[in-house]
Amino acid sequence: MSLPYSNSTSGRSAMDDIRKTIQAFGCSKFAPMEDFVAGKVIIQFEYRGRMVQVEASAKGYATAWLRQNPYSTRMRLSSKEHEKRALEKGQIAVWSILRDWIKGQLTAIDTGILSFDEAFLGQILLPTGETVHQRATTQGLLPAPRQEDKP
After folding, report:
1. CA 141, CA 148: separation in Å to the nearest integer?
2. Domain-embedded: residue 4
3. How far apart are CA 63 and CA 33, in angstroms?
4. β partners of residue 55
5. φ, ψ at 42 (rounded to 5°)
6. What is the pTM of this model?
7. Quick count: other Cβ atoms within 10 Å of Cβ 7?
8. Residue 147 falls within a domain, yes or no?
9. Domain assignment present for 109
10. How far apart (Å, rounded) are the C-alpha atoms in residues 15 and 37?
11. How far is CA 79 from CA 6, 45, 74, in A?
């Protein structure tokens, strides 16, 4: 089975789709950002006074892509070029992944499956600038995952 989103080509248009989706939902602010050093995409938006920050790792996706597409000396590119290609694929794929995830969460809210807080609890920004998930993690409020549950 191929890695989902590995053939995505719509990084920029996926970002525009996210903006349109959250704007139609009633969000009042939207800020996309790419952290090239950390290799992640960050989206912030506000809904009824709740600031939300969603992050996705392009480097994480690239690592998964490399597991599915390991380097071979028979390739017409170097190992470094292969890794660069993986990161480029990750930078495109994460936009599409976030578009679909955010649209799914907003659809769940619209249909009454979840409340806004239930859908985005971990990503809600606290006044300190950290997300609820980051605070819960640093304070040890969540038990560590069991070894057999790790991918």
Report:
1. 20
2. no
3. 21
4. 42
5. -125, 130
6. 0.87
7. 11
8. no
9. yes
10. 20
11. 19, 38, 11
**Residue written as token pair 């599409």:** 96
Distance of CA 15 to the CA centre of its chain: 11
Q: Tens of pLDDT along 25-76?
A: 999 999 999 998 999 999 999 999 999 999 999 999 999 999 999 998 888 8
Where would I find the H helices in the chain?
11-25, 58-68, 79-110, 116-120, 132-138
What is the token pair recorded at 134?
């980051």
| CB 126, CB 132: distance < 8 Å | yes
Asked if 119 and 25 count as a contact pair (C-beta separation under 8 A), the reply is no
- Per the structure, the complete domain to which residue 57 belongs is given by 11-139
| Residue whose structure tokens are 């248009």 | 13
Say how far apart CA 127 and CA 20 lie, in whole Å: 26
Instruction: Give the CA radius of gyration of the chain.
Output: 17
**Structural domain total, the chain:** 1
**Complete edge-to-edge strand list for the sheet that includes strand 40-47:** 29-35, 40-47, 50-57
Q: How do strand 50-57 and strand 40-47 relate by DSSP bridges? A: antiparallel
The residues, any chain, with a CB within 8 Å of residue 17's CB and separated by 6 or more, are 99, 103
pLDDT tens digits, one per residue of 95-137: 999 999 999 999 999 999 999 999 999 999 999 999 999 999 9
